[in-house]
Amino acid sequence: MFCPWSNYQAPLAGTGLITYQPASRFWTFQPIEGSWLLLLSSALVAVTVWLIRHRAAEPSGPATDGHSEEHRPGDVWVGY
Predict the structure, then answer these.
(1) For residue 63, what are the CA distances in angstroms to 16, 22, 51, 52, 66?
(2) Cα–Cα distances in Å, from 23 out to 9, 20, 28?
């Protein structure tokens, strides 16, 4: 297949080395890759759960319901 831009892109592309694994190693690599991906995803889930629980446990200020001590819902404001 001819690409008219290939002559212009060739100097910019650089060179690279591509290696292939034989098909006989496919089932050897499946548990190896699967195990490290499972480990990584489990670690990310554990960190996410820890962060959510850690932030939920922090008080938001002097009042734990999120309202300041001076102004609570239902209070009547009296201006002097």
Answers:
(1) 61, 64, 22, 20, 6
(2) 32, 9, 10
**How many angstroms separate the CA atoms of 69 and 2, rounded?**
75
Judge contact between 30 and 36, C-beta under 8 A: no
44-75 pLDDT, tens digit each? 999 999 999 888 777 655 555 555 556 666 66
Residue pair 56/48 in contact by the 8 Å Cβ criterion? no
Could you tell me if 21 and 29 are in contact, meaning their C-beta atoms sit under 8 angstroms apart? yes
Q: What is the mean pLDDT of residues 23-50?
A: 96
The runs of H, that is alpha helices, within 1-80 are 6-13, 26-57
